[in-house]
């Protein structure tokens, strides 16, 4: 299939492009560049070994979007393009509503005009708010904890209404838990702008010496070691799930909503210690106040994804840490670190 990947130059999008190409699909990327580096694309092309057209498009730019759908005949769209920092969303809610919700509406309209009726949407476990019960199943209650979470929930609902109104429209809502790790090559990975807000990139930056110590938010949660428990999932497993969901949606001709996690709860300190083992580096930390809005324990019941897609996460926490560390140590400044091929050649030829 020929797939439009919106946000394909970002962290999860870039790994999914590789997974799509690996399964024989053609990929066209649309990315606004707000949260991705121009260095991703040449690296992605090198890993993919095939041409990957890239268009700099903000989904809210309807003229550019229409032109894109007029240029290619797409079989499906994978939609990763969104702002995703919880704290930032509380400071700039309108920006999040506009980018994430207006962008999604413009994309759905362009798809409808072009007669493209298959969508895989990047949703999040954030739609469960603070879950009443763990592991969390897809039929758990939904709620909103912050503007970012609202954008994901609203987008799921918009997509649901479209599926109801158009009996031929198929969508897969994929509710990610905590994606971490990097491609095994160490060539692509997660490169947050500024100070990381998520745990794994923060640990990586401490281990590489870019930051002094990790602040562990809360040591008095009702969890085995008092620190927050989450369901970390290797980004390569997550990427594969997108291809599985896309192919299932086409084969079974139906929509779906599934959790993507491992089903295992891992505490902040578990992750710190696994990372120390994988990297051979110390990760100094101090336990500080809880971060407002954090739940004690959130992990998935991923059995529906297995039942429908035959998908299961394969990589464990040690593999996640090993691959995150390979990426970070090969790219201490993320994509600002030039590889040997990218570095300007010095000396005489
Ligand atoms: N944590 C620290 N120190 C840090 C960063 C995080 O102790 O510097 C802790 C948090 O308190 C939490 C755990 O590490 O217990 C994970 O925190 P993250 O920020 O990495 O991830 P969250 O589970 O808070 O958030 C993630 C996504 C959100 C999504 C949310 C709910 O980043 O986009 O899951 O699904 F909304």
Low-confidence stretches: 345-349
Gross morphology is: globular
How would you characterize the largest beta sheet? Answer: 7 strands, parallel
Secondary structure tally: strands: 13
Q: In what range is the share of β-strand residues?
A: 15-25%
State the helical fraction.
25-40%
Tell me which ligands are bound.
uridine-5'-diphosphate-4-deoxy-4-fluoro-alpha-D-galactose
SSE topology:
Elements lengths: L1 E5 L4 H12 L3 E6 L8 H9 L5 E3 L5 H10 L4 E4 L6 H6 L1 H22 L3 E7 L22 H19 L4 E7 L1 E3 L18 H9 L6 E4 L11 E2 L1 E3 H18 L3 E5 L5 E2 H12 L5 E4 L14 H7 L7 H14 L19
Parallel strand pairs: 1-2, 1-4, 2-3, 4-5, 5-6, 6-11, 7-10, 8-13
Antiparallel strand pairs: 9-12
This protein binds uridine-5'-diphosphate-4-deoxy-4-fluoro-alpha-D-galactose.
The site of uridine-5'-diphosphate-4-deoxy-4-fluoro-alpha-D-galactose has 20 residues, from α7 and β8.
Would you give an account of this structure?
The chain contains 11 helices and 13 strands. It is an alpha/beta fold. The strands form 4 sheets. Strands 3-2-1-4-5-6-11 form a 7-stranded parallel sheet, sandwiched between helices. Helix 2 links the parallel strand 2 and strand 3. Helix 7 runs parallel beside helix 9. The chain starts with a strand and ends in a 19-residue tail after the last helix. The C terminus is likely disordered. The site of uridine-5'-diphosphate-4-deoxy-4-fluoro-alpha-D-galactose (UFG) has 20 residues, from helix 7 and strand 8.
